[in-house]
Amino acid sequence: MTATRLQNIPESATIKMSNLASELKSQGYDVISFSLGEPDFDTPEHICDAAKASLDRGETHYTPSPGIPELREAIAEKLNQDNNIETTKNNIIVTPGAKQAIFEVILSVLNKGDEAVLFDPAWVSYDPAIMLTGAKTVWAATKRDNGFSPVDVNDYITPKTRLIVVNSPCNPTGSVYDKSTLKEIADIAIDKNIMVLSDEIYEKITYDREHISIGSMDGMQELTITVNGFSKAYAMTGWRLGYVNAPDDIYKPMMKLHSHSVSQATSFVQYAGIAALQGDQSCVTDMVREFRVRRDVLVDGLDKLGIKCARPDGAFYAFADVSKYGTGEEVAGLLLNRAYVAATPGGAFGDAGRDFLRISYATSQERIREALERMEKVLELV
Ligand SMILES: Cc1ncc(COP(=O)(O)O)c(C=O)c1O
Predict the structure, then answer these.
(1) Residues 115, 89 share a domain
(2) Angle CA(183)–CA(319)–CA(83) in degrees, nearest 5?
(3) Over the stretch 198-253, which tens digit does the pLDDT of each residue have?
(4) What is the 17 CA–ligand 1 centroid distance (Å)?
(5) Same domain, yes or no, for 36 and 8?
(6) Do 350 and 120 contact (CB within 8 A), yes or no?
(7) Strand order of the sheet with strand 92-95?
(8) How remote is the C-alpha of 62 from its chain's centroid?
(9) How far, in Å, is the centroid of ligand 1 from the Cα of 51?
(10) Is the pLDDT of residue 14 over 80?
(11) Is 13 a residue whose pLDDT tops 80?
(12) Residue that is last in its domain, among 221, 249, 278
């Protein structure tokens, strides 16, 4: 009785691991969770105040489907100023989370039989979205000793390629692509007329490397669909607020999907989005400063355990090679059941991640230190 299109789609591995951790917690175990991609900071006060003020003004009704004009204008201004992407509010759709934007893009671009390139390993939800369209995911290699940057991208392009997904800074590797990598992808997209979906949700969380938007590169304006959101930079995961900037011909079908499905993002949350973009950005800098310290505590600690882990340039994930102790799946099971430390097996993000664990360091320094101590005790028995 159920639709076949969903039968081969796996459940989200990150959510599965966090459910297992919650189950142990409910049995009274003190589980340290490294599994979810969610900042542990509170949403900054001025953003909460803007939502409260909006509620007090009675802004609780439907808004225009693509979003309130003031927020779309603020987003367009941000893209022009921060990202060098030339756009106007007429190309912006505000969505309930970046995830919705990504689904709308993929469903609007791909047909059955098309191919979409993902760089292996990649965030867990791109492949299921591609599968829903009947298109095929082509997994393209990344270079491990080059911080998991794509290599030889052209080898994965065929006449059927319609979309390349770029996610820099990357979940799960923390890799931030440099200009030459992005140029290689841009040159192929221009030469072969392929669309690029650039998921820039971690753009504000970078350490020593500058984030570059592929949509700002020469010739890429009409070929790039840029997705971003408020969840990670402003600790707003539960608010569900994201956006997409799309060229005219993709914008129109996306708007059909958007208006017939979610209608719009929540009214008062959109006002909070304006406060986030136009308010003081020191809240973002403060969070990133803390993430950097945690990253170093974690990577240095893993190094002492003999676990190889490149120091990530962005996002809040460490992608650790645990092959000394087993596959990512085996080590994740061991750590959860014996050390009560929850991390996600790297294989959930693609075959290239089989020997890895994705460790989300969006948790306090004390908890990271404690987790490392617990890991040491369990792993020395292996
Ligand atoms: C790479 C990537 N893109 C998109 C999202 C979705 O973000 P949102 O909370 O805005 O839906 C996530 C969330 O984990 C992510 O890691």
Answers:
(1) yes
(2) 35
(3) 999 999 999 989 999 999 999 999 999 999 999 999 999 999 999 999 999 999 99
(4) 17
(5) yes
(6) yes
(7) 92-95, 242-245, 224-229, 195-199, 161-166, 115-119, 136-140
(8) 28
(9) 22
(10) no
(11) no
(12) 278
**Tokens read off for 236:** 């707003």
327 shares its domain with 211: no
Q: Is residue 48 part of a domain?
A: no
Query: Is residue 349's pLDDT more than 90?
Result: yes
Domain range for 231? 62-278
Greater confidence, 8 or 164? 164
Same domain, 321 and 273: no
- pLDDT attached to residue 36: 82
Q: Are residues 119 and 206 in the same domain?
A: yes
Task: Examine the pLDDT at 15 and tell me if it is beyond 90.
Answer: no
Query: Cα–Cα distance between 122 and 165 in angstroms, integer?
Result: 9
Cα 88 to chain centroid, rounded: 24
Query: In one letter, which amino acid is 85?
Result: I
Residue 320 CA to ligand 1 centre (angstroms): 21
For CA atoms 167, 172, 177, 182, the dihedral sign is negative
Cα distance between residue 360 and residue 341, in whole Å: 11
Q: Is 248 exposed, middle or buried (0-12, 13-18, 19+ CB in 10 A)?
A: exposed
The CATH code of the domain that includes 181 is 3.40.640.10
Q: What is the overall mean pLDDT for the chain?
A: 96
Domain count of the fold of the chain: 2
What is the rounded distance in angstroms from the CA atom of residue 297 to the CA atom of residue 307? 14
Give residue 35's pLDDT. 87
Confidence of residue 324 (pLDDT cuts 50, 70, 90): very high
Choosing from 35, 106, 119, 231 the residue with most ligand 1 atoms within 8 A of its CB, the one to mutate for a pocket test is 231
Q: Tell me the C-alpha distance between 86 and 224, whole Å.
A: 11
**Mean pLDDT, residues 14-22:** 83
Ligand 1 pocket, mutate which of 99, 105, 240, 270 (most atoms under 8 A from CB): 99
Mean pLDDT of 261-273: 98
Integer-rounded Cα radius of gyration of the chain: 21
Average confidence (pLDDT) over 83-104: 98
Ligand 1 neighbourhood includes 97 CB (under 6 angstroms): yes
What is the 3-class SS of 166-179, one letter each residue? ECCCCCCCCCCCCH
